[in-house]
Amino acid sequence: MEKEIPIFHCEQEWKAFLERKTPQRIPGVWRGATNIGTCVSKWRDPRYLAEKIRDRPVKIHVSKEPNMDFKNKNFMYKDLNLKELILRASGLEKHSSYFIDSQELYYLRHIGDSPRGERVNFEEDFPELGEDFTFPTTFFPSNKLFSSILRISSPSVRIWTHYDVLDNFYVQIVGTKRAIFWAPHSALDLYLEGDKSAVVDVNNPDPELYPKFLSAQKYIVDLEPGDVLFIPSLWFHNMEALSFGVAVNIFWKNLDDKLYDKKDVYGNKDLVPAANADRMLINIIKQLELLPQDYRDFYGRQLINKIKKKCLTHEI
Fold this sequence. Notes:
This protein has 2 domains: 2-259, Jelly Rolls, CATH 2.60.120.650; 272-311. The chain is 22% helix and 26% strand. The chain has helices at 11-19, 39-43, 46-52, 82-90, 122-125, 272-288, 293-311, and strands at residues 2-4, 7-8, 28-30, 57-63, 76-81, 105-109, 145-153, 158-162, 167-174, 177-182, 192-193, 196-197, 218-223, 227-231, 236-241, 245-252. The two termini are 19 Å apart. One of its GO terms (molecular function) is tRNA binding.
């Protein structure tokens, strides 16, 4: 069963949606956002973007498989000049300098130009695009901004299902994209390995390997140029480029600063209390392993019951 993500067509409704206080925040889309500048009309021509942007080598994902698999790494990391990437991914340039072959696909998540590994800042990395793109920062405190990332992809590229620990806006500027979501309480149905799902092909999951995945409630929306997608922290999402795509992804801290890892440059580390609890759990398991199997099972269930009572808001 699928549910649709709410779509809003005016700024007042969008603002009210973001500000409402509900037990479970959900994703939403502002269609045809009016506060992101002239990028939608100008960047639709890849030639304009390639000429406008300052050229430099960028690290990209290259794969023959549309469904990129982070665990098994069915892609390779390669360096390619940014202008060349735009022309290749958009299909404008015919060439023979393949990394794999003529069917290869490209994906860029720009990691920044700073040699010191600082947080990515779109405005600083691409000032030449500043006159075209305006940050939609009126909907969160500017001092909470964490990072802003340029994303470029070939048609059909699908990025693995994962969650973010930061709230973020995904601003779709060029092309169309399908976003599929699962609520945080669906975690046990997604066969997680760390922050990512082991299910690579979400449209055709293996029912024998992933039986619970088939019953997990999913939410779907197709993004158009000019859409601003709100992705709440902890919501699992899977993104598929339906055509050549360019987007800017803006992350901010929606919680108190002290809850975030100060050394986290990429915004993918769990919150400090959660990371501490995970390390404690490793020690707890080591203690239980000192017991015979039947005792270990018994006390393990006791601990699960305590967590259910104290922490969970949905049945498992």
